Amino acid sequence: MATVSVxxxxxxxVEKIDLNDAVFGVEVNEHLVHMAVVQQLAxxxxxxxxxxxxxxxSGGGRKPWRQKGTGHARQGSTRSPQWTGGGVVFAPTPxxxxxxLNKKEKRAALKSALSSRVSENKLVVVDELKFDEVKTKxxxxxxxxxxxxxxxxxxxxxxxxxxxxxxxxxxxxTASTSTINVFDILKYNTVVVTKDAxxxxxxxxx
Length: 206
What we know:
The chain is an alpha/beta fold. The protein has helices at 21-24, 30-44, 103-119, 136-145, 160-166, 182-187, 195-205, and strands at residues 3-7, 13-18, 123-126, 151-155, 172-176, 190-194.
């Protein structure tokens, strides 16, 4: 069972807690992690790109010149792909890129991502994140105290003051325990998670 330090907002260690190995100490399955990231990126694609093939471009119905005797190569339409203003060969059409992963696969991928962060010492636990007012400067000060720059901050409940304070910091993203995903966990160098959020994650995924 992995043991991690719990820090306060001043960056001082206040206690140590044990993490549940069923969530934070599993064997990393790189294939499932890769599939989860690919799925999220694919599901985010709009799939609205479109270009016209030669059959969809208007005009070009008449043969531009006769078949033989002109010295030109034979041509059947001015909307063939080799002509300016012609159609596109194998033109893209709107499509749905999304695909599904099983629930068990998703859970296993998330556990693998969290476990990899623990093994790399890139999971920082704080006792709480509380602000009296929305203040980006104060949030940046907390990150500096924790010696963290590019971070995913996971909180238990959607505290508006915390979310708004972090919103203008380009290297920080906030997420609740219900919205964390593999892509964000891997994208940011460090995962900063509150003590309450750790308990919730263990209850949900253990």
